[in-house]
Input
Amino acid sequence: TQLLEQSPQFLSIQEGENLTVYCNSSSVFSSLQWYRQEPGEGPVLLVTVVTGGEVKKLKRLTFQFGDARKDSSLHITAAQPGDTGLYLCAGTSNDYKLSFGAGTTVTVRA
Amino acid sequence: NAGVTQTPKFQVLKTGQSMTLQCAQDMNHNSMYWYRQDPGMGLRLIYYSASEGTTDKGEVPNGYNVSRLNKREFSLRLESAAPSQTSVYFCASQRAGRSNQPQHFGDGTRLSIL
Output
């Protein structure tokens, strides 16, 4: 059973469209991280959110941490082919070990 | 900048064989981790080392052993490989464990067990 549920599992959109990826749990996390992974490589950190209700922006990417610190979302505006990849959310609990979601595979078609 | 280096990148084993996956980091990080990644299951923690000289079990430790050889190196050993251990293995390091600091990952070892 996955501690963090990500949805959707797969997402295929046209260049210029917007997309949102969700990460949900019944557990409270002290922080939540989003990683992006490209084929043949390891995950690379995009952002860490710590405070409930926190919103962080990274160029066209907007990350939100839920008020109760149980869920998070990643929104990409005007997606580009370079945004293609596997997006992983990971939560840290009291022992600070990371629990990963299964990931959302995003494909942006030119 | 090398970051986290994993060797080998690919390996095929027969059931029952043993092998050691190597990991080294050059960022002077204190904590190191071994994960496995399987389709539809994300990354699952096998073992971790919060600091040099310490190791602890993660979520899926059965069938594996680890050695924190020094601050830079953290190896993962499969004593008797089984087909269920076919996976992509990632090593990661972190400046300090028990923190929100990012983990830095290597590019993985793709292991197939026949």
Summary: The mean pLDDT of chain B is 93. The radius of gyration of chain B is 13 Å. Chain B touches chain A at residues 4, 35, 40-45, 48, 58, 90, 92, 97-100, 102-108 (CB under 8 Å). DSSP finds no helices and eleven strands in chain B.
